[in-house]
Amino acid sequence: MSVTEVGLYSGEPTTDRGWSYVNASLHPKMPDKPYICFYPMSKTRVPGANWYTLPYDQRKAYMHDHGKIGRSYAGKVSIILTGSIGLDDYEWGVTLFADDPVQFKKIITEMRYIEASSIYGEFPYFLVGTQADPERIDKLLTDGLGQ
Predict the structure, then answer these.
(1) Model's pTM, two decimal places?
(2) Distance in angstroms (rounded) separating the CA atoms of residues 120 and 21
(3) pLDDT along the chain (147 residues), means of 10
(4) C-alpha–C-alpha distance, residues 87 and 106, integer Å
(5) 39 classed as catalytic
(6) Which position among 9, 21, 35, 39 bears the catalytic label?
(7) SS3 call for 10
(8) Whole-number Å distance between alpha carbons of 58 and 80
């Protein structure tokens, strides 16, 4: 279980474009892409690599680098980020969407080498599949169970 949220490190928007980004994050539309990748993630809290003991400015810089890579995949990979702190075992749910599942491998591999992920990220598993057609799910649940 999780809820949509806005990143903690970008600050309050000061432009209409910034507010547009905030509203898109809080009220996401399902991307029209056939492939989907979901993974939960948390930031580490181990001695020597505790994300939450880093100074805010350091965390912000790490997340800026993280976001820079993500933005380089604009048009190839879409994301819906949800927060599950206090609601689940992991802190966030990350859902990626793409026309080509190889893009998941590319973006995840590239992000693996930056400090926000390589030192401070925990990624227990990744699930990849195709988006289901809501009408087909309804039909399966209503018609398929009676057979």
Answers:
(1) 0.85
(2) 26
(3) 80 86 88 95 94 95 94 95 91 96 97 95 95 78 66
(4) 30
(5) yes
(6) 39
(7) coil
(8) 24
